[in-house]
Amino acid sequence: MSAPKKVVLAYSGGLDTSIILKWLQTEYGCEVVTFTADLGQGEELEPARQKAIMLGIKPENIYIEDQREEFVRDFVFPMFRANALYEGLYLLGTSIARPLIAKRLVEIAAMTGADAVAHGATGKGNDQVRFELSAYALNPAIKVIAPWREWDLTSRTKLLEFAEANQIPIAKDKRGEAPFSVDANLLHTSSEGKVLENPGQEAPDYVYQRTVHPEDAPDTPEMVEITFERGDAVAINGEAMSPAAILTRLNELGGKHGVGRLDLVENRFVGMKSRGIYETPGGTILLEAHRGIEQITLDSGAGHLKDSIMPRYAELIYNGFWFSPEREMLQALIDKSQEHVSGTVRVKLYKGMARTVARWSDHTLYSEAHVTFEEDAGAYDQKDAAGFIRLNALRLKLIATRNARFK
Q1: Which of 119, 199, 336, 396 is deepest in the core (most CB within 10 A)?
Q2: Would you tell me which CATH number, out of the four given (3.40.190.10, 3.40.50.150, 3.40.50.620, 3.30.457.10), belongs to the domain 6-70+87-178?
Q3: What residues bind L-aspartate, as annotated (predicted)?
Q4: Which residues are catalytic?
């Protein structure tokens, strides 16, 4: 790969990406553009601007953007229409943020005339795959620079030495080994590494940042009502809100009641297992509520088909194929299923749990007349079940008869 002339860097303002910024300048002698996305990680982003300026980046080459609404509306909500869970448990909080960041990197590269993009993901993880597959899907000619796969700064000591040699400020707590690594956005927090690397040891409680310990949560349950239109949440307790505002409010409620904690050993796409601590308070409530409204509005055939493709859909997102044709094809099927998924669900929050306790909809398929144990006024003739059973039993009886002949 020829040396890039201008690079758009996914920049957090932290030590690692600050070192990468300087390394790009010294290694390639190229112009650097920084992009910092506000995805609801809960940090002040203005220091990233000041640090970039200090490292020699022109103000016009610094992009800091609030992408919370786009993140929830165009990435999180479509994923939640599918009830997506990777390996049956993980709500894909990190996975779903990467295609949005990569999309903006490629767009800013086009706007600024840059011929390359760069990220700070290591060569051991999934994020390098997600960033790069997304970038190539959107611009097959783009160059992607992954410093962790190129440089010789292979230890924390070497990183700190490089920082000191290049006058890059080092936070005091970075001089020792960081206790664990954290990724955060409006959907979740993810913690891994160091004190979490031994899956045989319980994670210390200080790892959790968004949720109180369920044992310390309020002793009184709290009810929250979530209203959906065509599969997307649109209101909480009757108050219409934007997508990002809904997830923010659900995070507050879930965090207060200790909802959404997950200790998971997962299978990374690159082949190894890793242990992560995830907190997805609002997402856990949202998934429960979405399941609740589907229970009365989604036909069994549609619902069972949708459930059967969910693991494949979740795996595509986890592995970085958000912009693949197969994910888009599955999304079209999922979105078609949501045409009548509208109504309201009441969820009970209590000591780490979020449980549907009521649901209602103008689009309901639930018929009390058909299921009642009382008089049904002729809505259902129970005698019809006899023929239904006989027809379904026919092949089983033929198999049993054949097998009996060969015993």
Answers
A1: 119
A2: 3.40.50.620
A3: 122, 126-127
A4: 16, 98, 127, 181
